[in-house]
Amino acid sequence: MKVLSVTSEVFPLVKTGGLGDVTGSLPKALARTGVETSTIVPGYPEVMRKLFNAPPLLAFDDLLGERASLLHVRKNGLSLFVLDCPALYDRPGGPYVDAAGNDHPDNWKRFAALSLAAAEIAAGALPGWVPDLVHTHDWQSALTSVYMREMGLSTPVVITIHNIAFQGQFPATLLPALGLRADLYSTDSLEYFGDISFLKGGLQTADAITTVSPTYAREILTPRFGMGMDGVLNERVALLRGIVNGIDLDVWDPSTDPHLPVTYDVTSLRRKRENRAVLTTRFGLDDGDEGPIFSAVSRLTWQKGMDMLAETADEIIWNGGKLIVFGQGDHAIEQQLLEVAGRYPGRMAVHIGYDEPTAHLIHGGSDAIVQPSRFEPCGLTQLYALRYGCVPVVSRTGGLSETIIDANDAAMSARAATGFQFHPVTTDGLRMALRRALHVFADPKQWARLQNQGMKARFSWDRSAHQYAAVYASLVRKSGAEPIAGLRRAVP
Ligand code: ADP
Ligand code: GLC
Questions:
Q1: What's the pLDDT tens digit per position in 356-375?
Q2: Is residue 166 in contact with ligand 1, taking CB distance under 6 Å?
Q3: What backbone torsions phi and psi does residue 363 show, to the nearest 5 degrees?
Q4: How does residue 481 score in pLDDT terms, banded at 50, 70 and 90?
Q5: Number of the ligand 2 atom closest to the C-alpha atom of 212
Q6: Which of 4, 35, 281, 411 has its Cβ near the most Cβ atoms within 10 Å?
Q7: According to CATH, what is the number of the domain 2-246+461-479?
Q8: Phi and psi at residue 76, in whole multiples of 5°?
Q9: Ligand 1 pocket, residue 17 CB under 6 Å
Q10: CA–CA distance, 101 with 311 (Å, rounded to integer)
Q11: Per-residue model confidence as pLDDT tens digits over 21-80
Q12: How many CB atoms lie within 10 A of CB 299?
């Protein structure tokens, strides 16, 4: 079976968070189940730099009024289509925001163009490579199925919600510029609280809706977590299911990680101390004492509870621990964290930035990873933490509640615990969890047991990839379409 995955980011070409990790690793696991995925992604400058002059496969003279072409490369075991459209993507800043951190004003067009190009591929624009199914991710690619249905295509589509907080909401007056009929502004189509929503369009036209954990699948049916989309989802609940994310065991492996000064595994955990020393120096923390290092590698946002971490940092510091925060995001939360760090020189460091090797080093050298999210569709950081022998301290929500086993007495005596969970998700809840972690850290045997159990937990993609493959297969079967075979391959 051939699948076209449509995404605004894919590791290792471009990544701002977990979406890139997932779209970059799931195809490799799917390949082991017989599913062949090609992924289409926008040609941002950082993507184009990595292409080494790949030849164009296809030209678009008028993609929402812009000239564009489609390139193909293979990288890290992935088959990638890159949409080269300088008018939309060749500019400073990141995939979603400009250099000053504001949304690109034409994001509606940038991601609609991606979706339209994907729909054209589904319709057969690439002779020799026609997908049997299309898989879209979040609002940025959600219009793909809208365009496909407008073209009269019935190829099955799966949409995955990675984070329902982002919905692609724009003025309805853009419909003509999107090349869409004005009457798609209706409650059973794109209309959304007086605007249009790309995500809603995707949810209304896809054949299956998945999200990245079963708990989040239940949560988003409620007003609190559904963020306005719960009504739409409740109507289509029969199509909705949660499939928990896996991690790329090759990219995140402490025994081979090229970003770690010293590699280690579950049998040589003691060597983590050498990474800890490098980390301490790198972040300008005092060395020479034995308290735990708690770290957060995260978007610094309300979702991630990073304001709560700022408010509870004193709990860690006063009890002999240290705190590292690495990330970027909401300016006010960045300032709040920096201000608290200013009170604890040598004991708390906040670095604003985004850098893959540093993220790896932090996992390699820290004792605990804190992730106090107010909502968390799946979360990958806690999974990387487990694999790297860092003990996660997490809120009990979404994927965090499914992937970490709280160190309560029963789980400790059953040798099943892997971290600390707290609920309700409040500052006091986090403070209590940090206190519990500090208490267990004081007993090296117990702490080592937690690390050990965490490192042995398995979050590879295999199980989840089988679940995606089963969803794909049932849709392709239902659509009656035979997997298209025997066509001349345009793509090597
Ligand atoms: P989300 O996608 O909501 O941000 P996830 O936990 O699913 O959360 O994924 C976050 C991903 O982004 C992880 O791979 C994490 O290592 C990475 N990440 C977050 N902040 C940074 C940063 N400052 N530098 C490098 N990687 C980061
Ligand atoms: C989103 C979510 C995160 C999830 C990631 C990958 O960014 O916030 O919880 O792990 O997508 O699915």
A1: 999 999 999 999 999 999 99
A2: no
A3: -65, -35
A4: low
A5: 12
A6: 4
A7: 3.40.50.2000
A8: 50, 40
A9: yes
A10: 25
A11: 999 999 999 999 999 999 999 999 999 999 877 889 999 999 999 999 999 999 999 999
A12: 19
- Please report, as a single letter, which amino acid is at residue 445: K
What is the 21 CA–ligand 2 centroid distance (Å)? 9
Q: Which residues approach ligand 2 with their CB closer than 6 A?
A: 17-19, 22, 162-163, 212, 245, 376-380, 399
pLDDT tens for 220-240 read 999 999 999 999 999 999 999
The alpha carbon of 411 and the centre of ligand 2 are apart by a number of angstroms equal to 27
Q: What is the domain partition of the chain in residue ranges?
A: 2-246+461-479, 266-456
What is the pLDDT at residue 483? 47
* Statement: residue 183 has pLDDT above 50: yes
Q: Is the CB of 326 under 6 A from ligand 1?
A: yes
Closest CA to 219 of 423, 419, 60, 14: 423
Distance 203 CA to ligand 1 centre (A): 25
How does DSSP assign 231-260, residue by residue? HHHHHTGGGEEE------TTTS-TTT-TT-
Q: What is the 3-state secondary structure (H, E, C) of 320-343?
A: CCEEEEEEEECHHHHHHHHHHHHH
Q: Is 421 in the pocket of ligand 1 (CB under 6 A)?
A: no
Flag whether pLDDT at 385 surpasses 80. yes
- Phi and psi (nearest 5°) for 58? -160, 145
Two tokens at 235? 């109507």
Q: Which CATH superfamily is domain 266-456 in?
A: Glycogen Phosphorylase B; (3.40.50.2000)
- Cα angle, residue 321 at apex, residues 316 and 322 outer, rounded to 5°: 90
